[in-house]
């Protein structure tokens, strides 16, 4: 048995994973987007997995799952999911940020936890991770994740889902974890509240909620909320009250330049000039093999220095 926990990056999915993994009936091995990132479904329903690209994926290589090339596509996925549990009687929780449409096409009866965090906080957090240089661009991946969610729910309206807000998980962790365990058919276990004793994460901290009120300017909030549009309130978050800012063409060009410059500067600071340059050149020339070794070095450095 497995369930999916689906939410945008920087939405609290790592915190949720650490909490759930303390439950003896659950196995939450980490991010599992690799299961569906390289999976394709042909018009005739045939499922294939790109073993070459999967084998180069940093998260896959760090996981305990291994692809059995002798198995057909869907059966190979089931086999890999089974490898992610510590005991046969455990329920595996797949932590995913994308690929929910593919997952539901293959496993339409899978229950799903939909993890949400205020996108204004997600946008700011993305800058700290080096994924964006402006909040305007920092909210892009949240939008992609949530738009995919809407498409998936329209295509699979009978899916059993539960919505979980990061803010409630921080402010009332026992109550929210009890809801989750009830959803997956397990009793609540107070050990889930002790996740910080087995990780580098701190106990729930209320100051992590609504950081945008302290850390973002009126213009930043206007830019983000204009880009979010009705999705902000549709996901249960109230507007800040600041005027939405819709940048004109030249303003968008300036924001894009600022975004690229900040991302590139941080990459060079972390990895030096050579490897980011080779990876970027490989993408531009559409010669992926040119960047494989450089990407492998970046991945190794990321794991050893930035993901401790």
From TrEMBL:
<keyword id="KW-0808">Transferase</keyword>
<dbReference type="Pfam" id="PF13469">
    <property type="entry name" value="Sulfotransfer_3"/>
</dbReference>
<protein>
    <submittedName>
        <fullName>Sulfotransferase family protein</fullName>
    </submittedName>
</protein>
<dbReference type="GO" id="GO:0008476">
    <property type="term" value="F:protein-tyrosine sulfotransferase activity"/>
</dbReference>
<dbReference type="InterPro" id="IPR027417">
    <property type="entry name" value="P-loop_NTPase"/>
</dbReference>
<dbReference type="InterPro" id="IPR026634">
    <property type="entry name" value="TPST-like"/>
</dbReference>
């Amino acid at each position: 048995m497995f369930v999916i926990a689906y939410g945008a990056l920087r939405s609290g999915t790592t915190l949720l994973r650490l909490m759930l993994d303390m439950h003896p009936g659950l196995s939450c091995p980490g991010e599992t987007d690799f299961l569906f990132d390289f999976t394709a479904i042909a018009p005739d329903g045939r499922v294939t997995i790109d073993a070459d690209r999967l084998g180069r994926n940093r998260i896959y290589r760090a996981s305990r799952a291994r692809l059995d090339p002798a198995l057909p596509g869907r059966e190979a996925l089931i086999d890999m999911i089974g490898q992610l549990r510590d005991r046969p009687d455990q329920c595996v929780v797949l932590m995913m940020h994308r690929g929910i449409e593919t997952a539901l096409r293959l496993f339409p009866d899978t229950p799903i936890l939909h993890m949400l965090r205020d996108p204004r906080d997600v946008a700011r957090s993305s800058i700290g991770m080096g994924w964006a240089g402006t909040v305007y661009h920092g909210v892009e991946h949240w939008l992609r994740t949530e738009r995919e969610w809407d498409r998936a729910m329209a295509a699979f309206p009978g899916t059993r889902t539960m919505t979980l807000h990061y803010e409630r998980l921080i402010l009332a962790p026992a109550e929210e974890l009890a809801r989750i365990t009830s959803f997956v058919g397990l009793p609540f276990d107070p050990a889930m509240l002790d996740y910080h004793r087995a990780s580098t994460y701190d106990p729930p901290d209320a100051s992590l909620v609504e950081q945008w009120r302290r850390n973002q300017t009126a213009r930043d909030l206007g830019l983000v909320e204009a880009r979010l549009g009705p999705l902000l309130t549709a996901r249960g978050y109230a507007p800040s009250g600041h005027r939405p800012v819709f940048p004109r063409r030249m303003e968008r060009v300036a924001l894009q330049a600022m975004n690229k410059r900040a991302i590139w500067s941080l990459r060079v600071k972390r990895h030096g000039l050579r490897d980011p340059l080779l990876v970027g050149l490989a993408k531009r020339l559409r010669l992926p093999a040119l960047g494989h070794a450089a990407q492998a070095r970046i991945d190794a450095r990321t794991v050893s220095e930035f993901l401790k």
